[in-house]
Hints:
Structural class of chain B: alpha/beta
Mean pLDDT of chain A: 80
Shape of chain B: elongated
Helix content of chain B: 40-55%
Largest sheet of chain A: 2 strands, antiparallel
Number of helices of chain A: 27
Oligomer: heterodimer
Number of helices of chain B: 13
Number of domains of chain B: 3
Strand content of chain B: 15-25%
Radius of gyration of chain A: 25 Å
Largest interface: A-B, 65 and 65 residues
Strand order of the largest sheet of chain A: 1-2
Amino acid sequence: MPSFFDALLTGVTNTFSWPGILIPIMGTFLAMAISFLPGIGSASLMALMLVLTVSWSPESVLLLFGALVGGATFMGSVTAILFNIPGSAPSAAALLDGYPLGQKGYPRMAISCAATASAVGSLVGVIVLIALLPVLRPLIAELGPLERVLLGIWGLTTIISLPYSSKSKAATMCLLGLLLSMVGSDPVSGLARWTFGSNQMLHGLGTIPALLGFFTLAEIIGWGNQKFNQRVTVRPNQPADSVRSGINAVFKHRWLTIRSSIIGTLVGMVPGVGGTVAGFVAYGHATQTADDTTQFGKGDIRGLIAPEAAIDAKDGGSLLPAVALGLPGSEAGVFLVAVLLLHGLVPGTPMLTSQLPLTFTLIIALLFSNLLTSVIGVLLAPWLAKLSNFPLERMALPALVVSLVLIVQLNGQIFDLITAIVFGIAGYFFKLHNWPRVPFVIAFLLGNFIERNLALSARLIELDRIQPLQRPAALVIFLLILISVFWMYRKTKPEAETEALGAADTWIAAPLTAVCLVFCVSAVFANYSTITVVTSIVALLAWIVVTAKSYVGAWPSADPGIHHQGADSSTQTIAISSSPNLHLYLLLAFPLAIYLLGFFVSLAGLVFCWLLRQRETSWRNGLSALLLAVASAGISYFLLIELWNVILPTALLAQLLY
Amino acid sequence: MKLNRLITLALSFFALLLPVSGIASELSQECQADFNGRKVRFVVAKEAGGGIDQYTRLIANIFADTTGARTQISNIVGGGGFLGLQAVATAGDENLTIGLFDAESLNQPFGNHSGLDLEDFYTLGIVMVEIEAWVGLVDFDLTQHGTARLIAAVSDPFLGVRRLGLAAHTMGIPLSAVGGYSGSSDAMAAILRGEVDVAAYALTSVLRAARGGMLKPVLLLSDGPVAEFADVPYLAGEGGIVDLFTQQWEPHKRIEAMRLARATAEISKSIRTLVISRNISQRSHRCIEEIIDNILFGDELAQAAAAVNRPITPINAQESSAILQRSHATAMEYRSLLSALLTEIMQ
């Protein structure tokens, strides 16, 4: 059996040999290219590579897979910073402060900071992993449902630490997020829950469509509406915006970076948790430990450093259950186990003993790929940053078309598009009326995970298979939760809500109370699980209280017309909500148009109407709008049908005609 | 003389076959023309990377190579495979969609949200039939377990009740299921942590996990011994664990238990079946059946599957259909028992 250091040296030699080094370089570029396109996961790339690399040596394949995993993480955050579009679910945490930073005139700083934090995160992650390697198996074996549910709750507690103008709104948004995360199938019984007879909803509301809708489409609706509401977008070019300042920021907040990296590594090691939790837990940690939290959500660099470091640090940890136990805890882990077995390697003890050099080859390739993406990110930052200078009004339509095409490309499901549009419209109004979106997103992302593991833990305790007080890892996480909550409350000033609820809030709260009522009644009558019923009742009560407060607050003199942008707003704008918003109606009508006319005709119609709305009425503008609409539909057709071979449902009109 | 006759007979036989082979060849050309450049979607109702996904990708590649069709893989996950089933069932000639499913998804005696069943599909063939196995820790011995309650991990209660609830019922062992584990890896990790005693998955998955040295197959859900696993107890048939456990039972109860054990083995098999919607035209159906038959029994799939360490046991469309019907009939026969067991094991 090779010694620890011999194995490490072999791993380094395998990675940096010539021409072997070309494999992780190619893998990194491939993964970067794929992950730059939002919604297109690396799973398809890995599946393809699995078959193509059958004849390769184990060292070469592990070099490639390490690079594919490492290269996919960072680029997802670039789209989040530039366009408010998360390239992957873990990148959602980078939206919170990354995009506002870009919009405030610091895109270079944000990108280079994200790249540097990723590099440091992956480096710390690998060091922690190597240090833990001897005790890895027992450590991973300790992390069961109880530890996972506590980790999820730890992630959820970050909501408390974020600055809000209204705590009532934050609490109700959190409960709404939890409620919507339960739509689909009950994780324990497998029975349909709140699907209202729709098979499409059995799998729940898709995370990527929901995130794209909630942030990107919501933003686009706002952009498209700017000209007509005389909104003023303030995006100054800041003199302090430089690559150097981004790199320096990471080193200035080095302890936050290291702590976030350690959080990312440890969370990544828990099977099934993934980078989304890691990013949000690290974000919460940043807000908890900061002296001044007022800028979080508005472009605080610490709110970008923490999740970036964590989501890159988790890469190595997420592969370890596959290597150490042969049991994949992540999508990448599934492919890794398949690769190992295909090449005659045995996951489990052998990978930590006789095959340790190969394990190190994988880890070093992963680190190399992470560092390479960061270097490329820093080098490209000045050019990438220029994309954010593009006028928002002009970017709205292309961004909308790209988003819609990408959402359809995910699964070829129109239901995903409907999900995104509903979330987009909701997100637009939440933003307009200063309802905090972050608690909703955190709860929505963590809800199912917490529920599943809570139900598992309760059942195992009932069957006497786990004793909570005899699980050291659970006790440690529980202690961390208590410390976090105590720390957060100690730092929170006992002040009243800074913003009173008004009449416009009633327009948000009343319909959502009705939604919660429908959910609650159906949960009670359809005999859903206790967790589901309790959550729906608590959510309903909270929304009733907020509706009542907003109604009382509105009486008698509230002016529903004018609302200032809220805490998570990214542009310093004032919008007049009562003015007509054709873009909103266009998006609302879009799913119905697809059903009647098909995706491409509807897309052309959407583009045509959108452009007509934005321009002066003249035959010349009409013609150019028509040409652009046809071109958009044509390009979308080429991409979806010819290139990606997506099969879309036949429109009703086509069915009637043929 | 005899030799001459034999030669004449043989020549006559081949002469008779000529027109038939001519028709077959013509049909192939017709199908070739139909499918050249045509889009065909393959639906996988599971996440990318698993066994079904790999089989589908191999078949889709060969389909594209041999016909010139443009194939696309869609992983439509959710609802216990119902979303994928629905995508296949609702597709017609204009958007040809083939699905590879476990028979259990096609063959739900209850808890079927989609309202779809075997009647909605043409069976194109079976890629792989394999038995399911219970997996447990290496020191777990079912034959010595007695009648103490077993705790089992399940990912999908509707599948778990067949593989675990029904099997335990035939052995007279009380069983409680813990639902909510997300997939086989999660369930097997739960065994390693001591949260549960057993889980049940396809034998290949169990053997893959067993290579780590801490898990092993503890029961084969088969109707008779399996030569390669002579030391692993099996469920049904003579010498099986039900036979062993019921020796002291009253004869009629014992006969019923043995019959139920055989039925359990039958309905818990992992049967990976290719299907297509009945909405498609006869011509498309005929061609696809022919193409799939050629792929399933061709060397290319055998070699490609062997290269990625995935065994195949191809069965043609007609026989596949009969196998599925048989399995469905058995599942329907025990529908009320399964339903009662589901409630019992989840409580």
